[in-house]
Amino acid sequence: xxxxxxxxxxxxxxxxxxxxxxxxxxxxxxxxxxxxxxxxxxxxxxxxxxxxxxxxxxxxxxxxxxxxxxxxxxxxxxxxxxxxxxxxxxxxxxxxxxxxxxxxxxxxxxxxxxxxxxxxxxxxxxxxxxxxxxxxxxxxxxxxxxxxxxxxxxxxxxxxxxxxxxxxxxxxxxxxxxxxxxxxxxxxxxxxxxxxxxxxxxxxxxxxxxxxxxxxxxxxxxxxxxxxxxxxxxxxxxxxxxxxxxxxxxxxxxxxxxxxxxxxxxxxxxxxxxxxxxxxxxxxxxxxxxxxxxxxxxxxxxxxxxxxxxxxxxxxxxxxxxxxxxxxxxxxxxxxxxxxxxxxxxxxxxxxxxxxxxxxxxxxxxxxxxxxxxxxxxxxxxxxxxxxxxxxxx
Length: 394
Known about the structure:
Elements: H1 5-11, E1 28-29, H2 32-35, E2 39-45, E3 51-57, E4 62-69, E5 75-78, E6 87-88, E7 102-103, H3 109-113, E8 119-122, E9 125-132, E10 135-148, E11 151-163, E12 167-170, E13 173-176, H4 184-188, E14 192-196, E15 206-210, E16 223-226, E17 242-250, E18 253-254, E19 262-266, E20 273-275, H5 277-291, E21 306-308, E22 319-323, E23 327-331, H6 333-336, E24 337-339, E25 344-347, E26 349-351, E27 361-364, E28 372-377, E29 382-387
Parallel strand pairs: 4-13, 5-11, 6-12, 19-27, 20-26
Antiparallel strand pairs: 1-11, 2-3, 2-15, 3-4, 3-10, 5-13, 7-10, 8-9, 9-10, 10-11, 14-15, 14-28, 16-29, 17-18, 17-19, 17-22, 21-25, 22-23, 24-25, 28-29
Protein name: Peptidase A1 domain-containing protein
Family: Belongs to the peptidase A1 family.
GO molecular function, one term: aspartic-type endopeptidase activity
């Protein structure tokens, strides 16, 4: 399966900081009539269990690829000057070979906006350090032309020259969509974006839609819920899109939630969901009863519940998540029971106690988002969604 899921779980833990969120910069959209026609970015599933986009940087264009990270704070890629790099599937980006690359000098508003504890200037080159969902990175601040799907934009980005990342399974960096000034959606100035993730085993592209191309089919199937904000408890989660979970069912069985519900972090970097512990234990029990096979005594790491596929006789129930405002989202069993390896089926959910969080947080991972079209309206501050065949929207 490529990179072990256990590694992914460590990487997606909510200890990630949002220091890069303090950067203040806005890119300038150059194509698609300033997004009047919107833009479409094809994305694909990799064996490292991430959704990835291929794109180019610079003039003439150099190939790159990056994980699409819904909560990612910035756009970054490894550069040729990297002294401590992980392996990637494309050549390292060479800024000296791009006619449109501009290194950010020290003293500019962009450079000065980087918090002083992560900013480093030497030789009049603006440099930074940042924590990301993949690990800690350090690089130089630059701007260049990006061609991402049908969009072309001049973006500020991190030209990474050092990191503590072991591997990303091929991609050269991350394209962040988070609620931060350096993300792709903020820099391109779009009022909305959406994505529809095709099933990971379908062999089909998924799609990210930017600007006016981000729209749902409607037809009475769409539901909407407002974004919510949380603060305190030592967590800086301002980069995440968050909604409030107020009800959860497994088939006809009601799953207990905290009295105040649970704040759900929407995430595409983690393939696995995390539920508040009481809800997770109830889902785990309901799935075990429905599958009708004795669980494995020693589950495959990092899962808590696995079955031999050959012994499963029953059908696991759909899970129905109900968010604030009555917006109900159905997650089919095929989206949370992962046919992992060696004839083993595992529950692709875990307890949020593993996140070392002191708040009632849950996290909705990418596997549980498949075949649902999600629309993020940044003006209305709402999340809308509807069931869809995502293989037909790419």
